[in-house]
C-alpha cells in the first residue's frame, strides 16, 4: 500500500514538473507585457471622477462604480466589468506581469480541482487518475492555445474568457461534490456555489449560457428521475437571475447598435457547423496520441461506475457536443460571427474538456456491455502509453516544434524582440507623461503577433486614444505620423 502511495506521488510530481517546464518561457515573457486597448478605459472611471486620490483607493472605488457605469452605458456583464476594474495595470505597484500567472493558474487549478472531485465523488476511485488526465490536458492545451497574446498577456481579453471559464469549472467541481458526495454539504460550499453561479452569469455570454444550460439540465434530469436536489434548484434560480440581470442592461442596446445580428435559428445551425469544424481541425496527430494515452487512465477511472445503457450514453455525448456548440450561438446571434481571437481560445479550452468527457462516456458504455474490453485496455496500458506517446511526439515533429507556444515565447525572449518591444512601450509612456494636454506619440515599432502594437489612431476620439488620454489625464492623444 505504501509503495502505491509513493508511486502515485512520483507520477503526480513528474507531471507537475513537466507542466511547469512547458510553461517556463510562456510565463517568463510576462516580464515584457503591458496594458493595452481597453485595459486603460476600464480603469479611468474613478480616476476621472476623483483625480488626486491615492491609487489603491481609486482601484477600490472603480471596482464599485465601474460595473454600474458600464451596465448602463456599454454592456451588462457586471462580473466581468468588476474584474476589469481591479486589473493589475491599475495597481499602485507594477503588477501587470501577473496576468498570465492568473489566467494559466486559474485554469490549471480548476482542472485539477474538477478532476479530483470527479474521481472522488462520481467515480469513487483514486484521484491520481483524474489528476493525470488534467495535467496532461493542461500541457497540451497551453502549448497550442490559438492566440497567445489574447489568451495570456492581455488582461481584459484573457480574463473575460479564460478566467470565467476557470470559474465555471470550479463551479462544476462543487456541483459534482453536491450531487455525489455521501457527506452533508457544508454551508460554505453551498454559499460558494451560489456565488459562482451568479458571478459566472455576469461574465461573457458564451460561458454564461453554457453554465445556465448545464445547471438547468441537471435540475431537469432530477425532475425526470424524481430526485431533484434542493441546492441545485436554488442554484438554477440564482444563475437565471444573474443572466437576466446581465441581459436587461441598457448598455447592451448601445453595443448591439454597432453590430449586425443573425436570426436565432441560423445562429444555432451555424454553431453546430462550426463546432464540428473545430472538433476536426483541433484533433491533430499529437492530440490523437494524447487520447490514446488517456484510454487506460480513463478505463481505470470509470471501472467502478454503474452500468449505463447505450441510449443514455449516446444522449450524454450528444448533450455534451450540443453544449460545446451552444457557446458559439451568442456571438453568432449578436454579431453574426463566432467571436474574435480571445473567444476562439475559449472554444479551444472547452474542446479538450468536451472530448475527454465524451471519451469517458464511450468507455462507460463499453464497460456496461463488454467489460472484458476495459480489462484488456487496463492490462495492456503500457502499450497504449507507448503508442500514444509516439503518436504525440510524431505529431509535434510533423507540425514543427516551432509551432508550440514554448518555442514561440522562447524565441521572443532570445531574439530580443521582447526587450525591444518593452523599450518602445516604456518610451511611449514616458512621452505621454512628459507632454502637455495635447499629446502626439508614435506607436510601437518593434511589435509582433504575440506582443502587438497599441493601435493608436490619428483620431483623438478613437476609443484606444480616449482610454489612454483618460488614464493619463490628457485632453487628447494623437498618433504621431512618421
Annotate the secondary structure layout.
Layout: H1 2-28, H2 38-41, H3 44-49, H4 55-73, H5 78-85, H6 99-122, H7 127-143, H8 148-153, H9 155-180, H10 187-200, H11 205-224, H12 230-247, H13 250-256, H14 264-281, H15 285-302, H16 310-326, H17 329-335, H18 341-369, H19 371-379, H20 381-399, H21 405-414, H22 417-434, E1 438-441, H23 463-471, E2 476-479
Parallel strand pairs: 1-2
Helix pairs in contact: 1-7, 1-21, 4-5, 4-13, 6-7, 6-9, 7-15, 9-10, 9-18, 10-12, 11-12, 14-16, 14-17, 15-18, 15-19, 15-20, 16-18, 18-19
Write up what this structure looks like:
Strand 1 (438-441), helix 23 (463-471) and strand 2 (476-479) form a beta-alpha-beta unit. The chain is globular and about 75 Å long. With 482 residues, it is mostly helical. The protein contains 23 helices and two strands. It starts with a helix and ends with a strand. A two-stranded parallel sheet has the order 1-2. Helix 7 runs antiparallel to helix 15, helix 10 runs parallel beside helix 12 (230-247) and helix 14 (264-281) crosses helix 17. The model has no long low-confidence stretch (mean pLDDT 91). The chain folds into two domains: 2-30 and 98-410, no CATH class; 415-482, no CATH class.
Amino acid at each position: 500500500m505504501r509503495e502505491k502511495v509513493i508511486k502515485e506521488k512520483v507520477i503526480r510530481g513528474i507531471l507537475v514538473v513537466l507542466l511547469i517546464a512547458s510553461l517556463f518561457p510562456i510565463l517568463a515573457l510576462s516580464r515584457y507585457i503591458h496594458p493595452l486597448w481597453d485595459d486603460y478605459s476600464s480603469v479611468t472611471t474613478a480616476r476621472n471622477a476623483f483625480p488626486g486620490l491615492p491609487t489603491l483607493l481609486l482601484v477600490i472605488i472603480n471596482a464599485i462604480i465601474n460595473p454600474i457605469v458600464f451596465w448602463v452605458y456599454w454592456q451588462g456583464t457586471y462580473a466581468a466589468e468588476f474584474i476589469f476594474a481591479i486589473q493589475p495595470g491599475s495597481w499602485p505597484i507594477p503588477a501587470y506581469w501577473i496576468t498570465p500567472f492568473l489566467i494559466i493558474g486559474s485554469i490549471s487549478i480548476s482542472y485539477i480541482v474538477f478532476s479530483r472531485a470527479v474521481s472522488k465523488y462520481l467515480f469513487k476511485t483514486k484521484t491520481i487518475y483524474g489528476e493525470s488526465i488534467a495535467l496532461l490536458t493542461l500541457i497540451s492545451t497551453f502549448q497550442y492555445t490559438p492566440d497567445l497574446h489574447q489568451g495570456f498577456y492581455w488582461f481584459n481579453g484573457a480574463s473575460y474568457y479564460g478566467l470565467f471559464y476557470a470559474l465555471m469549472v470550479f463551479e462544476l467541481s462543487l456541483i459534482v461534490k453536491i450531487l455525489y458526495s455521501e457527506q452533508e454539504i457544508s454551508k460554505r460550499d453551498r454559499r460558494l456555489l451560489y456565488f459562482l453561479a451568479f458571478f459566472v452569469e455576469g461574465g461573457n455570454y458564451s460561458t454564461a449560457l453554457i453554465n445556465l444550460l448545464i445547471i438547468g439540465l441537471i435540475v431537469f434530469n432530477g425532475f425526470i428521475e424524481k430526485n431533484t436536489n434542493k441546492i441545485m434548484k436554488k442554484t438554477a434560480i440564482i444563475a437565471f437571475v444573474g443572466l437576466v440581470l446581465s441581459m436587461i442592461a441598457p448598455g447592451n442596446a448601445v453595443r448591439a447598435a454597432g453590430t449586425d445580428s443573425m436570426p436565432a435559428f441560423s445562429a444555432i445551425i451555424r454553431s453546430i457547423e462550426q463546432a464540428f469544424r473545430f472538433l476536426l481541425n483541433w484533433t491533430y496527430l499529437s492530440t490523437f496520441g494524447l487520447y490514446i494515452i488517456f484510454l487506460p487512465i480513463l478505463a481505470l477511472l470509470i471501472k467502478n461506475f454503474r452500468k449505463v445503457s447505450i441510449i443514455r450514453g449516446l444522449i450524454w455525448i450528444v448533450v455534451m457536443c450540443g453544449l460545446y456548440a451552444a457557446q458559439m450561438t451568442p456571438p453568432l446571434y449578436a454579431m453574426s460571427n463566432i467571436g474574435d481571437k480571445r473567444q476562439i481560445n475559449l472554444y479551444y479550452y472547452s474542446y479538450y474538456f468536451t472530448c475527454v468527457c465524451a471519451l469517458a462516456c464511450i468507455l462507460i458504455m463499453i464497460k456496461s456491455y463488454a467489460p472484458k474490453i476495459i480489462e484488456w485496455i487496463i492490462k495492456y496500458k503500457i502499450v497504449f502509453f507507448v503508442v500514444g506517446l509516439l503518436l504525440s511526439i510524431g505529431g509535434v515533429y510533423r507540425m514543427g516544434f516551432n509551432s508550440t507556444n514554448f518555442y514561440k515565447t522562447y524565441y521572443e525572449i532570445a531574439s530580443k524582440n521582447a526587450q525591444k518591444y518593452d523599450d518602445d512601450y516604456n518610451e511611449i509612456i514616458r512621452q505621454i507623461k512628459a507632454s502637455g494636454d495635447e499629446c502626439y506619440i508614435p506607436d510601437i515599432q518593434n511589435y509582433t503577433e504575440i506582443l502587438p502594437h497599441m493601435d493608436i489612431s490619428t483620431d483623438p476620439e478613437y476609443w484606444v486614444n480616449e482610454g489612454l488620454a483618460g488614464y493619463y489625464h490628457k485632453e487628447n492623444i494623437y498618433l504621431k505620423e512618421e
